[in-house]
Amino acid sequence: MDNFKNKLTVVKHNDIVEAGYRLSIYESRILLTCISKINSMGEINNEDTFLVTVEDLTGLANLDTKSAYRNLQQAAKRLYGRSVSVQLPENRTLDTRWVSSVEYIPNSGAVELQFSQKIIPYISQIRRDFTQYRLKNVLMFKSNYSIRIYELLVKWGGNEKTIEVEWLKKRFQLENKYKNIGDLKRKVIDISMLEINTHSDMWVNYSQIKRGRNVIAFKFEYGVKNPPKHKFTNNFNDHINGISRAEIDKNARVGETYPEAAARLAKLKNTS
User: Are residues 183 and 267 in the same domain?
Assistant: First the structure.
């Protein structure tokens, strides 16, 4: 993977990270690849088009080219019908499609899409309450649940979080599936733990919380495998781009180096 692709970054509003939706792994790869091409501080509209090619996906995720053509076409057809449910203030709910149009271009092995008007505020012009990570950290996953849980870990921050089983099932739109907790663990949680630990920049473990004989919640413990390192002198006023080391340590996001975090924080200060 070349250096440019290594730096592709996904930025989503936190409301989307915790929204209710289901996607296949290929649909997720298409959407995330498009989102990574958006300047999250800039402006887009529903007339802007985004192109994802077979070469994009095979190069980023080391996929087989022959199957990638078939899967890209099938995912493009399904993606148009997919929706997302976002919780709004005052107990309101927004149900919207991800995209307003999807076109598969057979001779070039590419998908061209336009995002729906209602989803655009959650993926562009974002200046606060957002989750950010490198695209490369999730593209080797084969389960969309791995992507969802990884995004939640990044969004939560810290090093542990307890989540009710019903809360998780609602976000993943699994209310009517996996009535047996063992099935939920085996087909959703355990696979996600394995893929996150194997392919991403994070480590994660989980344990069950019971009420009587029933599992009512999962406790996740997690962290970054290789925290960013930067050499500082002993000068009390160590800064990068005018941002102090203490502020960087407090506000750095998962996967960011010190210079990257400093640049982002300086930009936020300049626009606030």
Answer: no
